[in-house]
Amino acid sequence: MSNSQHSCQKHQDHSHVHGPQCGHTAIKHGDHVDYLHDGHLHYPHGDHVDEHQLEVSENNPAECTPNHQCSGHEDDHVHGPGCGHEAVPHGDHIDYIVNGHLHSPHGDHCDDHGPVENI
Question: Is the distance from CB of 27 to CB of 116 less than 8 angstroms?
Fold first, then answer.
């Protein structure tokens, strides 16, 4: 999705300047780069920062994958605030980046919601 297809949803009162050396994880999002900041995807845009979310797509589906096996964390690991994995808004929920892909907690397992490309 190109940036021109995103609606401009300003993040209010955001004084931090995002960029290649800002310290936040940068991920490719369509034709631009977003920065993960406190569970939000931020896109520097003009004189402000937009709030983005990864769209549910063929590359990043939102389906249940109960047979997904991941070596990125212990079997008893529970994703959530403070779990050690970065949170990413994806569709209508929050996923967590584990070994370059999105994990979505779902019952007694994690669903694989596809890859993310770190920049």
Answer: yes
Q: Provide the pLDDT for residue 14.
A: 56
DSSP of 38-94: TTEEEEEETTEEEEE-BPP-SSS-----TT---SSS-TT---STTSSS-EEEETTEE
Give start and end residues of each alpha helix (H) in 3-108. none
For 79-108, write each residue's pLDDT tens digit.
888 889 999 999 999 999 999 999 999 888
Q: d(Cα 117, Cα 109) in Å, to the nearest integer?
A: 23
* Model confidence, pTM: 0.80
Distance (Å, whole) CA 3 – CA 77: 35
Residue type, 85: H
Distance of CA 49 to the CA centre of its chain: 16
Can you give the pLDDT at residue 5? 47
Q: Which amino acid is at 95?
A: D
Tokens 């999705």 locate to 1
